[in-house]
Fold this sequence. Notes:
The complex is a heterodimer.
Chain A: E1 2-7, H1 10-18, E2 22-27, H2 40-52, E3 56-61, H3 67-77, E4 87-90, H4 93-102, E5 108-111, H5 119-129, E6 133-137, H6 144-153, E7 157-171, H7 177-180, E8 190-196, E9 199-209, E10 212-222, H8 228-233, E11 237-240, H9 255-264, H10 266-271, E12 277-278, H11 291-294, H12 297-302, E13 306-314, E14 318-323, E15 327-328, E16 334-336, E17 342-344, E18 361-362, E19 367-371, E20 381-383
Parallel strand pairs in A: 1-2, 1-11, 2-3, 3-4, 4-5, 5-6, 6-7, 7-11, 10-12
Antiparallel strand pairs in A: 7-10, 8-9, 9-10, 13-14, 13-20, 14-19, 15-18, 16-17, 16-20
Chain B: E1 5-9, H1 13-21, E2 26-30, H2 45-57, E3 61-66, H3 78-88, E4 92-95, H4 98-107, E5 112-114, H5 123-132, E6 136-138, H6 145-155, E7 158-165, H7 177-182, E8 199-202, E9 226-228, H8 233-238, E10 243-246, H9 253-271, H10 277-288, E11 295-296, E12 323-330, E13 334-339, E14 343-344, E15 348-352, E16 359-362, E17 366-367, E18 373-374, E19 376-377, E20 382-386, E21 402-405
Parallel strand pairs in B: 1-2, 1-10, 2-3, 3-4, 4-5, 5-6, 6-7, 7-10, 9-11
Antiparallel strand pairs in B: 7-9, 12-13, 12-21, 13-20, 14-19, 15-16, 15-21, 17-18
Helix pairs in contact in B: 1-2, 1-9, 3-4, 5-6, 9-10
Amino acid sequence: xxFNTFVTSTDDLQRCIQAPNLTEVLIEPxxxxxxxxxxxxxxxxxxxxxxxxxxxxxxxxxxLMPERVLQTIGDRLKTWDLQPxxxxxxxxxxxxGWLALRAxxxxxxxxxxxxxxxxxxxxxxxxxxxxxxxxxxxxIELPEDxxxxxxxxxxxxxxxxxxxxxxxxxxxxxxxxxxxGTAEEETSVIKAFAAFEDAPNRHLRTLETVHxxxxxxxxxxxxxxxxxxLKAAGLDTVRLDLRHLGDRHNAAPSVDQICQxxxxxxxxLRQSWPHETRAPFFKANRTTSLFPRLKxxxxxxxxxxxxxxxxxxxxxxxxxFYTTQAFAIATAKRLLLPTGEMMDxxxxxxxxxxAGESLETIETEQLLxxxxxxxxxxxxxxxxx
Amino acid sequence: MWKPxxxxxxxxxxxxxxxxxxxxxxVYLGGQAxxxxxxxxxxxxxxxxxxxxxxxVHNAKVYVTLNxxxxxxxxxxxxxxxxxxxxxxxxxxxxxxLGVIRAVQRSSNLPVHLSTQAxxxxxxxxxxxxKVGIQRLIVGRELGIAEAxxxxxxxxxxxEMFTHGAMCMSYSGHCTIxxxxxxxxxxxxxxxxxxxxxxxxxxxxxxxxxAPAADDHQIAFMSSQDLWGIHQIPAFFQxxxxxxxxxxxxxxxxxxxxxxxxxRRLIDAYAAGKWCPELLAWAAQELQSMPHRDYFAGSLxxxxxxxxxxxxxxxxxVGTHQYVGIVVDSTADDLVVRLAEPLxxxxxxxxxxxxxxxxxxxxxxxFSVLGxxxxxxxxxxxxxxxxxAMPLQARSLARLNIVRLAxxxxxxxHAI
Lengths: 385, 416
């Protein structure tokens, strides 16, 4: 299991050389990367320098691109020498498609961090890209047991974020410049903090780059002290995203010491980490556990047995039903209240039309009027047995 | 002349029928699972079958959303569900997740429309999805019509675009605020719409509490204005966009009716060579009648800029007219209306027919469903309006017609 990290300078490269188990560096040009601020030339030079020092440079092309943007980028990228890059990592399938035509010899690393939370999808990507695909960058919303399973089952190397900011939101629109002025250069970044009304002490880091606006959680993902089982399962790469701890010229501050600490005492590293840490989905992803409680009980079980729904009632006077299917009066047996309470339909209920005529058979989408039935309110369902 | 399909949302059977009655060529809806509207009263299997049958009788199509990003455990029952959908004649499914696409293709012959959640934004991506075997691309809302047209021309895939409604500020499928701040998966139907909330925003939090220096103002800096594509109808035709989609599976029958009626008329007018400024003015006025978050053209012509943010502090909006209710029956003597809002004698109302101008009159008499005269009927009740007191045109009004107040609504907030 190796580490990788983002780099922006030769100082970063020097630290990476000293870092145990770190052989791969991620290079972000502003042209292609969400948070990149290297010029085209600087990115290519840095790749050559990384290669010369025995590191494996990976070009980060993680922006999403409407057609107009991809065309512009493609034109510019044609002038690049991509050979120094050992691999290219992409998020937009369009980038993968472009590379398949223009640089098919360079291995592909596919970012599947949003969605792609099932084996079927991951196997699908492997089938689509075949031998061109070098690695899948998996989602941190996957729990440990699934990560272990995927590392064991997938015919491809896998990577996971070990430590770093958790991206919450990626918009192509410029959302900060309206408030803080426009960035002057392509490589400029507007930085701000956003806070919810009810949690003003939670500072959500927010960036606007030439590619859009990004919002991050106020706590860092951290699983560096929980890697043993993943390592045993064959996890290939753990990413160390330290960009928010450094500056424009130091994207990997202290990465040499951090890597040493991961190997020596990762718990101490977590305890001394400069930001609060968490790994909210590492043990279990329960983000759907609320859904059953969000739904009224009546919908789940009873709607297919529903003959009609109460759409109006006036206490002591009447109830109005709207039928959802044709039925014989005799089959109407019970009422299900929105609260979930079930009660028998009173035996003496007479169903009438709006014109006041007593009915024996009922058509679908018909209004039925009865005398007042205690407890009935709009939303009550009329059911068969 | 070829026309693009008008595709409307259907929260339930009533909305499905309203959409088709007011001119939708197709509707999209969710079943009990696998979709992105977990809180909606999504269709049961019986209701799905009824909806498909109704739609097909009226020459409309039904697309079912299976557009959640699933975890392994969520796949339980999906194969059987796809077989059921195919058996009842569903016309296509809308899918985001490659795993779900593979499951659909393995278990059925249902055509697959790639959901906008997959953020297909360019030709190269489209070509990959084409190889996967999808029949239609619902392209990302960040794309312009000309770009979508290019994709259509070069792939010969059907290309569908959102034309009206609320917009995600984020790239669709790339927002996880709800996941990490509320424990609800926005890509499995749990979005809490955090982008609509006001935030404190600052560049230098000097204390633990972020607050703006000048005042205590909070900013809804991530809330998008609503999309409308009324001015772009000719471009949709020219670029051969096959389907114009209306957002809003959680919205009211009022919304569905007005949007369908407006876009139906615009599409038909353009096809008939009757496109004119007066028609656009009418369309704009009608769409302003409903709650909305200020309209703009999204990225249909040029990329959405920083002026596309809906910065009003309220996460609610006001239309020029208030929704009153829907006609649930029409007898020889009465229109029977289910009220979504209270109605008082003396108020002027408009009933919107499926085709033609609204029928407007002042309500002088209200009757309960038992025929008792009333001066006021409350929300969530049923009222009888005597046809004898209506203008002649009102005789042709029918079930599923929408009723709104004729006068501009007071400046009150309506939930969208």
